[in-house]
Specification:
The structure is a single chain. This protein has about 120 residues and is α+β, with helices and mostly antiparallel strands. About 50% of the residues lie in helices and about 15% in strands. It has 5 helices and 4 strands. It has helices at about 5-15, 35-45, 60-70, 85-95, 95-105, and strands at about 20-25, 50-55, 75-80, 80-85. The protein has a 4-stranded mixed sheet, with helices on both faces. Strand 1, helix 2 (about 35-45) and strand 2 form a beta-alpha-beta unit. The termini are far apart.
């Protein structure tokens, strides 16, 4: 697939799912610590999300980096908006900002679950 084809595919995944996590591994079996941290945060909040294992396709693995202009994986998208990687998601979660963002965008989560 060309870069444009990969970007089109990535764009469709983001457009068709409210929450998308591009990660190494899957939500049930993360393959790196950073991906595991973001998956644990989303699971802790009870957020339904699409997990895309970048290790299954090198085109997607490299394509997501150029798509977002962000050099690392995992990458979290909420309602089409790039949120960030592990450090940003973790800091937002700890400050309650991720929960607020999800609520503002109409994404259901465990409202009684605030910060770690």
């Amino acid at each position: 697939m060309s870069d444009n084809d990969v970007h089109d595919w990535i764009n469709k995944q983001i457009a068709n799912n409210n929450v998308v996590l591009f990660m190494k591994g899957t939500k049930t079996m993360p393959q790196c610590g950073f991906s595991m941290q973001v998956a644990q945060i989303l699971n802790h909040l009870g957020v339904e999300y699409e997990d895309i294992n970048v290790l299954e396709d090198m085109g997607v693995r490299e394509g997501i980096k150029t798509f977002s202009n962000w050099p690392t994986i995992p990458q979290l998208y909420v309602k089409g908006e790039f949120v960030g990687g592990c450090d940003i998601v973790r800091e937002m979660f700890q400050a309650g900002e991720l929960q607020d963002m999800l609520k503002d965008k109409g994404i259901s989560s465990n409202s009684e679950t605030q910060t770690a």
